[in-house]
Every structure is written in structure tokens, then in C-alpha cells.
Amino acid sequence: MIVYSDTQTPARRPFQRELNRVERDILRMGALVETSCRLSHQALCDRNLSAAKAIPSLDKKIDRYYRQIEADCVLLMTLQAPVARDSRQLGAFMQLVRDLERIGDYAKDLAEISIKLFPYPEHNCMSRIAMMSQQAQAMLAMSLEALINLDAEVGLQMKEKDTAVDTAYDTLYQTLARQRDYQGVLEPILLLVLAIRHLERMADHATNIGRRVAYIVTGHRH
Amino acid sequence: MSFVTFILGLAVGMSFFLWLRFTVERQLRQLLASLDSSIPDDSMSLWSQLRRGIAVDRYEREDLERSVEYWQQILLDAPFGYLQVDEDNQLCWCNDKARSLLKIDRWNSGDSCLLLKLVRSYELDRAIELTRERQQPKQRDWTFHPVNANVEKPKLQDSLALRSHTFPLADGYVGVFLENRQPITDLARSRDRWLSDLTHELRTPLTSVRLVVEALQSRVEPSVKKWVDRLLEENDRLIKLVGDWLELSQLETNPSDRLNCKDLELESLVRSVWQTLEPLAQPQQINLICSIPTPCRIEADKSKLYRVFLNLLDNSLRHSPPKAAIEVEVLVPEGNRLEINIIDAGSGFSELDLPHLFERFYRGDPSRTREANSTVNGSGLGLAIVQQIVTAHGGSVVARNHPETGGAWVQIKLPIKCIHS
């Protein structure tokens, strides 16, 4: 019946199997980073402090995956000496987990920012920042999707999608920086500028992931 | 001469034939023995027995196939989601309900594809992995957030509260049942909101009723006075209930934001709670045994923790026999957690009540939870408040019966450092 499918090839090559395992760990790490980003969004935009407090423990897990995947990749490189696409894939994986890990770090920074921002009243830019945060999350989802399907085209499309986030950053920066007659403490404004900067960097790293996927598939640097 | 040669040849031929026949027959018998469905029947020839055996086998196989189809159909039409992964966490089968719950749209049955590629949920993956490691079934509640990879319209999609039951199968396979808990979650939320709105509305009129009754107390005739006293008492009970409920719902909506954590000393806190309860304890000659390593300092919300001890000690007091003792014991095992045990010598909790003790308005055995002369508490919210406060501090609380005293044993574990930064 259903149950034990016989479509698998009887003996998969050990290298392929190891590679699949690394890929699985990367996807797990990706799922964790996505959760982290979602929580940072809730912390920043919905003022949910318990979400902010949940992030550091997630970040520790992400870091652990990062170190483990990197070590696995190095081990596979040296022991199995892969060629062509396999070697490109391993190399790109090593770079890509670094990007993922950075996105996780930014999510953690956003959580810290939102804790500091909590005592201040909500700024009227918040809805636009929420939009930008959702765009950054969608970019991350898109890059992971490109990785899953090894889709070079999606990976390369990300560069142009990134401009949406960049534009949002520019306009928000202008609005925040060009305020006149601002009264009161400057901290909330500074924190918001930092927050949009982090979001913009998140989207950049997601774009990098897309480029690395394209490199795995085509073998050309874009 | 030629006759002798003929006979000899015939004998050799016959012996070959017989030997061959003997071997064939032996092989046939072996073959028959391996067909466990065949019934040895000496009246039939071996060949017919074999034919019959094969026919029976085929029939049985068809029967099995039919029953497999039948079970598969049952799983397909089941009102809950079901999916199954192999030893590498690749999805090998799922029903339509699971597809719609987890939004699996790019998968054809028969393909094997990493589950994480189809459903990017760390919780589900983790539950499957743990089940395989421990070879034990596992139940887990989690929220599924469908991803949206559309940068132009990055609206977050609605999340779904799910309950997964994972269980190990042979060869490292794992089966997962999925239950949609979203309607129940929505309902519980709307019920709580409804109730807290209601209590909010009740508070003001109740307070005015109390003022009026107080004013009446001194003005009515002595014969009516006891009724007015009764009215006041019952009104106070209602006010307390409403207050408890409001506190509980506030604690629940914002668990850690409502805490005002400060450094405090545990023993003096317990002693001050006991002082409040002294009027209840003295007539029964109940003693408090405090074994707390001094000084035991903890960072917590003082008034909230006071409430925890008040509710628990009050409960213990009301169920202790006269001249008994109530023990409060604090242990500081290594690590950053504190263990508080509150043990009484009463009748203990009944086994039936144990799983529901911390539910709101749950009252177990009426003889245990509410006594005729009790005026304090008894709202059915005491333990629920205890649990909410302890959880807000990042701790946990468990209730059971003490093996030695047979009475109630409530165990609280608290982090020494308050979670709230």
C-alpha cells in the first residue's frame, strides 16, 4: 500500500546521501531563521515582548546548525573530493549558511531594538516598516524556495525584487531623518533607523542566497 | 546375451527414472511445505496439491490487496490529516486532508521528496525526529504559518493551530496524524474575551451594591440584619470572583509584561502569608513547618508570589485535619532553578481530579473543594491563578499526592533570576 514506497533506487551513493543530509539540515536551519524573522516582526510591529524573548534561544540553535553544516561541508569536500556541480553545490552551501546565519542575527538585533522601543509610543511610520518587514520575509521565503527547487531563474529574479525593499528603505530613511522640530528623546528615531537598516540587510542576504543558488545550477557568477 | 544387455539397460534406465522421480517428489514436498496455506491431503497427488496451494495463495494475496486498498481508502477519507515519512524524512504518502491543512500542492503521490521542502515547519520536523529517536508516540500542539514568497504582495497568511500525533513505524518510518485545532482555539479565545468583558461590566454595579448594603446595615431592624449580613457576604464573594477572573485574564494576555520583578527573600514572604492565614489556622491548631535555606533570595514579583503562597496555603489549610502540619520546603538544586514543595497531611487529590486541577472553575470532589463554613476563596480560580503566575515567571507547577503524608503535594519550579529583563 501506501506505506513503504519502492520507488527509491536500491543503493544510493553514499556521497549523494550525505549531500541530502546536509541539504536537510540547511532546510531545517532555514525554517528556524524564518521562525526567527516572523517573531522579530511580531516583536517590532505588534509590540509582542514574549516573541522578542523567544528569539535568543532560537538564535543559539541557528548558530549550532551553522557550525555543524560548515563542518560537514568541509569534511565532505576533503573526504569525497566531489567534482563539477557537486563541488559547486558544497561551496555554495557553505556560503549560503553564512547568509542565513546573518539573517538570524539581524532578527535577534531587531528583537533587542523592539524591547528598547517598547516604552515609547508607536511611531506613525510603523505600518510602512511592517510592510517592509513582510517584504523582507517574503524575500527570505523566495530564496529558500529557489534553493529547494534549485531554480536559477527565481534565484536571479531576486535581485530585481530587492529593489522594492531598497526603495522602501530610502523613503523611510528620508521620512525619519528629515523630520524638523522634533521634540523629545531621539532614541526611538535612532532605533527605527537601525531597524529599517537591519531589514534592508536581511533582504540583501536573501538576494545573496538566490545568487548562490543560480551559481550552483548554471556554474556562472552573476 | 542381447536379452541380458536389454534387461541391464532397462534396469539402469528404470533406476534413473525412479531416482529422478524421487528427487522431483522431494522437491515438490519441499515446495508444498513452503506454501504455508496448503493443507496436506494424501488423497490428492502432489501436483494437484501444489496447484491448489498456489490457487489458495493467489486468492489470499488478492484478499490482502483488497484489505490494503480498503484501509487506504479509510485513511484517504478520514476527517483528519495523515502523512507518512521514510527514514530520511521524505514524504511517502499523505491524504487530501493533510494536503489542504499543510498546503502541500507541489507533490504527486509516489514521489519521494523531503518533507521540509514541502512544509517548512521546524516544529513538525522536530516532532518526527524525536519520535524516531525515542521510538515513542508523541503529541504536540504547534502553529503552522504558511509562507508567502510574493514580494509584491507580502501579506502574512493566516496561521493554523494544529495538533500532531506522531508515532514510529517499522524501518525508521514515522506516521503523523494532524488535527485542526484552529476552530477550538478561536472558540476558547472568544469565550475568554466574552467572559472578561462580562466580568468587567459586573465590577462597577457590584461595588455600588456593596456600598448600598453597607449603608443599610446600620439602618435596618435587628430582625432583618442577619439577612443583610448574608447579602454582604455573598456580594463580597462575587466581587472576589470577578477580581480573580480579571486578574487571571490580564495575566494570560500579557504573561510577563505584568510582572514587577524585584529581589526578595523567600522565608519572610512565606511567614507573612502565614500570618494572614493565622486566624484560620489557630482554631484548628495547624502548624507551619518551614524548611527554607536562609537566606534564600529570588528575583520575582512580590505581590504575585504572595498570591501564589496565599492560594496554596489556604487550600492546604482548608483540607488539613486538626493539629496537622503543613510543610513548605525549598530546595536549591544546582542550576538556576528553585524547587518549592508545599505538602499537607489532608486527604489529597483524587486521581480523577489530578489532570484538571489547574483548569478554571474546576471543582473536584465537592467535599474537598468547598466546605460549608468557608468564606474565603472557593471561586475555583485559585489554582488557575497560581499556574498563570508561575508560568509568567518562567516556571512550572505540578500537583500530586505525597507518598508519605497522603496529602496534597504541590511542587513549583522557578528560575532564580526573573525572566523579565
Secondary structure: elements and pairs:
The complex is a heterodimer of chains A (222) and B (421).
Chain A (H helix, E strand, L loop, with lengths): L13 H32 L3 H32 L3 H34 L8 H24 L2 H26 L9 H32 L4
Helix pairs in contact in A: 1-2, 1-3, 1-4, 2-3, 3-6, 4-5, 4-6, 5-6
Chain B lengths: L1 H33 L11 H31 L4 E5 L4 E5 L1 H7 L10 E2 H4 L3 H13 L3 E7 L15 E9 L5 E7 L1 H36 L4 H32 L7 E5 H19 L2 E5 L5 E5 H18 L5 E7 L5 E7 L22 H4 L12 H11 L3 E6 L6 E8 L6
Parallel strand pairs in B: 8-10
Antiparallel strand pairs in B: 1-2, 1-6, 2-3, 4-5, 5-6, 7-9, 10-11, 11-13, 12-13
Helix pairs in contact in B: 1-2, 6-7, 7-11, 8-9, 9-11
Rg of chain A to the nearest angstrom? Answer: 20 Å
**Helical content band of chain B:** 40-55%
Strand content of chain A: under 5%
Which secondary-structure class do the elements of chain A indicate? mainly alpha
Q: pLDDT under 50 segments of chain A (min length 5)?
A: 1-12
Number of helices of chain A: 6
Mean pLDDT of chain A, to the nearest integer, reads: 86
Please tally the helical runs of chain B, counting DSSP H or I stretches of 4 or more residues: 11
Domain Histidine kinase (chain B): 197-418
InterPro entries (chain B): BphY/WalK/GraS-like, HATPase_C_sf, HATPase_dom, His_kinase_dom, HisK_dim/P_dom, HisK_dim/P_sf, Sig_transdc_His_kin-like_C
EC number (chain B): 2.7.13.3
Catalytic activity (chain B): ATP + protein L-histidine = ADP + protein N-phospho-L-histidine
